[in-house]
Amino acid sequence: MQNLPARKKPAYSIEAVDNALHLLQLLRDGGSxxxxxxxxxxxVAPSTAHRLLAMLVYRGFAVQDETRRYVPGPAMGVGPAGxxxxxxxxxxxxxxxxxxxxxxxxxxxxxxxxxTKVRFLATVEGTNALRVGDRQGTVLPAxxxxxxxxxxxxxxxxxxxxxxxSHNAEIGGDNIPDADYPAFLRELETIRSNGFAANFEGxxxxxxxxxVALHNKDGVAVGALSVATPVARFRRLFxxxxxxxxxxxxxxxxxxxxxxxxxxxx
Length: 266
Description:
Elements: E1 2-4, H1 15-30, H2 35-42, H3 46-58, E2 62-64, E3 70-72, H4 86-104, E4 107-114, E5 117-124, E6 130-132, E7 139-141, H5 146-152, H6 157-165, H7 167-172, H8 181-194, E8 197-200, E9 207-215, E10 221-230, H9 231-239, H10 242-259
Parallel strand pairs: 1-6
Antiparallel strand pairs: 2-3, 4-5, 4-10, 5-7, 8-9, 9-10
């Protein structure tokens, strides 16, 4: 079995370390974490999850708030997504992702945009021997990933300018050069017109992806859905109606998002 991208689990992995890193990803992407949810995510006893979280607290990567939830601590470095509903979005999206992945036998992702980046909240892999692997917890440039581009296309021009052409963009390394910026704006306009975004090996060699934005009941984009596949299979998948299949999933998932009273604005 071969997974893409080439983020392989070490042959001699240390389970406790892997679990601790998984908890860091959950804190970063979700913004808060309850003990019982941590245990469920890792598939361990609450006492084990408590010991792992206690070490994160000791090292400053987590703190407990007044409700006894764990939230990112000062040593986290990369701040949380700031979206308290991201876990809920992931839960709502999961069955739709599974149905879509089962239908096309490719890897499906759900993500949110945080500034100039997208964070992958969940992945459902296809069963092909050669497939795109699990990206849960991965952070990628929004202007490179298909789902990220779909979300950027929803923004006003002034916000795009602020994200990629401001002094802060230069400091953060997100600045798009003068020579490339007009083409980037044209690409966003095409995405708005088509209703989907594509990524042809823009984030990783050998991988192509298609992404669509997900909206709440007010029409505000709250996340994105993407299908990632080895580049050799992308054209055949696209020609067989991938856009229509994804739009069907998009519509059904947006119905569930709209029906959820806990949904939030970005």
